[in-house]
Structure formats: C-alpha cells, structure tokens
C-alpha cells in the first residue's frame, strides 16, 4: 500500500475531533491556523472557541476594537499574530467585501499569512493541490525517506514541499495535508516515538537505519537574550495605579504594563530607589518603596528570557491618569503581568 493510502487510513482511525476540521469556511480555518502557529492544539483550542463566539464572522472581528482582540488573545503569546489578524480581517471585510482569496498565491498576499498558512487554507477550504510544510511534515518526511537536509536552511522548505507534492493524492490534497500533520503530532513525535506501533515500521528508512532520533537535521541554534525588567506598581492615596501602553515595536506591542525600568542585570533596592526618585513620579512624593518579589520571575519567550521584579511604590496625593483595580483588569496585559495582577495585586 502506498504512503498516502496508509497515512490517510491511519488518520481516519486516529484523528482528533477538532472544531476547525468540521468546516471548509476559510474564516475559521484561517483563525485556527494563525492561532496554532507556535502554539499547541490544547493551548489554542479555548482561544479558538472564544474568538469564534465573540467574532462569529470576519465582519465581527473587523469591527472589534484592537484592545478587545488583544485581551481575548492574552496568554497566547506572539502578539503580532493578533494585530495582523485584526488588520487582515479589516482588509477582507472592507476591501474584499468579506470574501477570502481562494488560491494559494492570493492568500499569500494577506498580512500575517505565510507559505504554510496559505497552503493550509487553500487546501482545506478550496482543495487546492498544494502541500503544507510545518515542523511535523519536516519530521515525518525526513524520517520516512531518510532526508538529511538541514531544515534550518532556507532551501529546505522548497525541497520538502516537492517531496510532499509527489506523495500527495491529487484528488484529495486536504485530507493528505491534515493526515501528515496529525501523524507528526501524535505518532511521529520529536522524542521517543513509538515506532513499534507505527504503520510505517516496515518502510521507514530512518527506522531501518537506526536514525530516527537523528532526524530531522536542524543545525541553527536560536540565540537567547536576557533582559531585566523592574515594574513599578504604584498606589496613590485613592488606591489608583498607573499603567502604560507599549507602543514601540518589539515584544508586547500595544499591550499594557506598569511603568518599567529596564536594567543590565538584576538590581536591588538602592538602584531602583534612586532611579524612582530621580526619574519617576515627580508630581507625587514617594512615601515608600518595597520589593514585591525577592526572586526574579523568569518569563521565557522564544528569543528572550525576561527576569522580572515588581516593586510596590506608595505615593502621596493622586496620580495623573490613574486607574483602579476593576478598570485595570479590562486592559490587555502580557500574561506574566496579568498573572501578577490576578494573584498578587491587592
């Protein structure tokens, strides 16, 4: 039995019941694919359900305020996805009258839609014969065919797309694409796959050669940058605090945070006290400064590790543009600050 037949047979017997698999609506498929970039299905599912409840059509998403979109996205990370999602919804609703592009090449023109997402929408919604290539596909094909190409190389995606295209049944590309991704997610997993129960255990080249744990080859190492954030959680005489929107490009753009002092390393009370006295809250006298957490909270992003400390600052008088706790909880925050507010902030 050829590769695609075995794969699809396995898929039909083992696939997970996921809501975006029960539709060909490009809006729902686009939403799910954007959410599942860099995100596990279990983590993304509640967000998909929340978004489709709040925004059942692309017009609803387009009409929403960006802060509402970011608030619903809170905790999913990679927030540029949410901002691009919102802008693309507005473009589709306004310029395209709510009609999604129906070809791979036209889908690629949408903001935030790359080759993988365009291929997924084109095949799942319109049954276009175009292969998807994600980490699961790299892994399955490199092992099954014993391909030692470094998947970190720019040319690798084109090579693996060609291999997938050759194996793909041209009369049903959608189910093949779903099947190969699901196979990589559930069976041909990165570490310690159960090759004994695999439907390809007699035909997988990597298994025959004892190379399963060596494939796929990926040489590129991500350089991680350490950053040290000190958040100033102020409280004035009315119990109000101060938050700001991060408007500069970079992490957490358009999310809210407390006033921030970024330092070159973890610093103590004396450094923070001096910086607060010299550069912050000059309209209000600082009554006290206290360390909220003695050990830094380490928040790991894909390319940055953030060492975060919160400082409690009591001020005399009333702060300008202060917000109370109830109002503050309606703003979109990075998840690490949201968790602090929910668990620690009084």
TrEMBL record:
Keywords: 4Fe-4S, DNA damage, DNA repair, Glycosidase, Hydrolase, Iron, Iron-sulfur, Metal-binding. It holds the Pfam family NUDIX_4. Its EC number is 3.2.2.31. Its cofactor is [4Fe-4S] cluster. It comes from the Bacteria. It is an enzyme of class 3 (hydrolase). One of its GO terms (biological process) is base-excision repair. Residues 35-186 form the HhH-GPD domain. It catalyses: Hydrolyzes free adenine bases from 7,8-dihydro-8-oxoguanine:adenine mismatched double-stranded DNA, leaving an apurinic site. GO terms for molecular function: 4 iron, 4 sulfur cluster binding; 8-oxo-7,8-dihydroguanine DNA N-glycosylase activity; adenine/guanine mispair binding; metal ion binding; oxidized purine DNA binding; purine-specific mismatch base pair DNA N-glycosylase activity. Binds 1 [4Fe-4S] cluster. PANTHER family: ADENINE DNA GLYCOSYLASE. Belongs to the Nth/MutY family. Adenine glycosylase active on G-A mispairs. MutY also corrects error-prone DNA synthesis past GO lesions which are due to the oxidatively damaged form of guanine: 7,8-dihydro-8-oxoguanine (8-oxo-dGTP). This is Adenine DNA glycosylase.
